[in-house]
Design a protein that fits this description.
Elements lengths: L12 H10 L10 H12 L5 E4 L7 E6 L8 E6 L19 E2 L2 E3 L7 H16 L8 E6 L10 H7 L9 E4 L14 E8 L1 E10 L3 E2 L9 H14 L8 H11 L4 H11 L13 H11 L2 E8 L6 E2 L2 E10 L6 H12 L4 E7 L12 H13 L4 E7 L5 H5 L4 E4 L21 E3 H16 L3
Parallel strand pairs: 3-6, 3-7, 7-16, 8-15
Antiparallel strand pairs: 1-2, 2-6, 4-5, 5-17, 9-13, 9-14, 10-12, 11-13
Helix pairs in contact: 1-3, 3-12, 6-7, 10-12
The structure holds zinc ion.
């Protein structure tokens, strides 16, 4: 009897991640070129050709196409090579040394998202080393500038070179960093299925001005400001149970204690409209609250700079976020009016683009992602999530792809590693990244 040949071991993503972290691709300004060139070299070592392209030679996009077995449609893997700055932060270990200490890789980008890029690269190199081809063609896009508007990166690529992505139905990218600890002894695996979009507004409040030495008139703009801020504090916009959220609440209800499960079921059925903050860690509560409704936050307030003049005009800028789905800016402003009243002047400052498929159906592709997670971590709970902020997925979705945020990590249950994105001491357990590389390898080998 001949002994079965053992396949070559999987390529370890950790040395790749350490190298990636050592490129200071801090955005602004970006400087992603050396990082992109390193990825190109790494791929070339496995016989994979790639192209560097973009509007700025110092900030190239990298695109590679790896031929598949023709058993599945092509699949896009997209990752950003830039990271946010570290200025003003106190780090325990230097942020750009890529140190491996006690099983954790330290550095800016360890989670967001050089860890994810390392997973993708390791999965592709493992396929190559084992002499295997992916189920369908794989297009890898490593883009700059995600952290600062995406103009040099996915924005340029999707506008100028849509031909590179023709016929790709599905895309995998970052998950938007949902750290979920709904139960401290349970590990949750977020699968990003949709993103909220921005709707930035300026509200103007007017009233009678005058000399501040007198008792103010009854209709002061400052009083209207007080009313506005009080209303924003005390009232929430209505809940909308989107299909992804319904599924998320259903899966969560099955994985948490009975008391919380009952409340989540009530939310799902529309029998309650507020998140049970008293039963949740506040970070989880705030996160869940943001998936249930459009949100609004007053962020910039401008008024006179004269201490002895009563201002006759005050403006309040609102950072609003609209849920995925068919909701328009008009729908959003309509809901907001119920809170701020009919008289306030509202001006639209910025509207995030609405993607043609606002919420991918929980399709066979989604089910495959869940199946891989269940095989790889039988105790974990996969959850479809809506990303409260936006990533490059919105740009690729504009080309008609269903985009999923899927960078699986085997993190200790109850840990909050993802909370360190953009913050000091960003780090990731090495085994969490190896787990993700293995999940991606399984996906590339057999996807719908
Ligand atoms: Zn990111």
């Amino acid at each position: 009897m001949s002994q079965a040949e053992t396949p070559p071991p999987a390529v370890d993503p950790i040395p790749i991640l350490q190298r990636l972290i050592r490129f200071r691709s801090v955005n602004p300004p970006g400087d992603e070129r050396e990082c992109a060139e390193y990825v190109a070299e790494l791929l070339a070592g496995a016989g994979i050709e790639s192209e560097l392209l973009g509007p700025d030679p110092e900030r190239p996009n990298l695109v590679a196409r790896i031929p598949g077995r023709g058993e599945a449609p092509p699949l896009l893997l997209h990752a950003h090579s830039d990271v946010v700055p570290t200025g003003g932060q106190q780090w325990t270990h230097p942020p750009f040394d890529g140190l491996l200490i006690d099983g954790e890789v330290w550095g800016r980008g360890a989670i967001d998202m050089k860890g994810g890029l390392a997973m993708m690269l390791a999965a592709l190199l493992t396929l190559h080393q084992r002499g295997e081809a992916p189920a369908g063609d794989v297009v890898l896009a490593v883009v700059p500038d995600e952290e600062n508007g995406s103009r040099a990166g996915a924005g340029w690529l999707t506008a100028e070179r849509p031909d590179l992505f023709e016929g790709i139905p599905y895309a995998i990218g970052e998950d938007g960093g949902a750290a979920l600890t709904f139960r401290p002894d349970r590990r949750f695996h977020p699968v990003g299925v949709a993103e909220k979009r921005a709707c930035w507004l300026r509200l103007t409040l007017r009233g009678r001005g005058g000399h501040a030495s007198r008792q103010g008139w009854p209709d002061l703009a400052v009083h209207k400001l007080t009313d506005l801020l009080t209303a924003l504090r005390d009232q929430r916009l209505p809940t909308h149970i989107t299909p992804a959220l319904d599924r998320m609440l259903a899966e969560l209800s099955g994985a948490v204690d009975q008391e919380l499960a009952a409340e989540l079921t009530a939310l799902r059925k529309g029998e309650r409209s507020t998140v049970p903050y008293e039963l949740l860690d506040v970070a989880d509560a705030v996160y869940l609250d943001s998936l249930l409704r459009h949100t609004v936050n007053a962020t910039v307030i401008r008024t006179s700079d004269k201490i002895n003049m009563i201002p006759d005009e005050i403006t309040v800028d609102l950072d609003g976020r609209i849920l995925p789905g068919d909701f328009t800016v008009e729908d959003y402003i309509g809901e907001l009016r119920e809170v701020v009243g009919p008289e306030v002047e509202i001006e639209l400052l910025l509207e995030g683009s609405r993607t043609p498929k606002a919420e991918p159906e929980l399709s066979p592709f989604y089910e495959r992602l869940v199946e891989i997670l269940r095989e790889a971590d039988p105790e974990g709970v996969p959850l479809p999530v809506i990303t409260p902020a936006s990533t490059d997925a919105r740009l690729f979705a504009n080309l008609g792809m269903d985009c999923y945020g899927w960078l699986p990590m085997l993190l200790p249950a109850g840990s909050r590693y993802q909370d360190r994105m953009h913050d000091a001491d960003e780090r990731v357990p090495a085994d969490a990244v190896r787990f993700g590389a293995d999940c991606l390898y399984r996906l590339l080998g057999a996807h719908p």
